[in-house]
Amino acid sequence: MIMEFLAGGELFSYLRMSKSFPSGMVKFYAAEIVLALSYLHSLMIAYRDLKPENLMMTHDGHIKLTDMGFAKEIHNKYAFLSF
């Protein structure tokens, strides 16, 4: 598979270098992750491999989810509601 070049690199690398992020940065990245997962859920796709290594950054600092190998298409419309 081929992916576009993401000049920002892995979020994990930045986290490892800086040890922690300021709260504003954490809120920004958390919001972007929630929006991405919400979009996938609207398409009935469960992204099941969320970890910092799978979060890539664009050149302007936005998040992109990668590694959709464990993603699963949900055929039962109530699957997201069951615990």
From TrEMBL:
A GO cellular component annotation here is: cytosol
Is ATP-binding there in the keyword field?
Answer: yes
Annotated Pfam families: Pkinase (PF00069)
Q: Which InterPro entries match?
A: Kinase-like_dom_sf, Prot_kinase_dom, Ser/Thr_kinase_AS
Keywords for this protein: ATP-binding, Kinase, Nucleotide-binding, Serine/threonine-protein kinase, Transferase
Q: MF terms per GO, please?
A: ATP binding; cAMP-dependent protein kinase activity
EC annotation from Swiss-Prot or TrEMBL: 2.7.11.1
* Highest taxon of the lineage: Eukaryota
Gene3D superfamilies annotated for this entry? Answer: Transferase(Phosphotransferase) domain 1
Catalytic reaction annotation: L-seryl-[protein] + ATP = O-phospho-L-seryl-[protein] + ADP + H(+); L-threonyl-[protein] + ATP = O-phospho-L-threonyl-[protein] + ADP + H(+)
* Record carries keyword NAD: no
Pinpoint the Protein kinase domain residues: 1-83
Protein's UniProt name: non-specific serine/threonine protein kinase
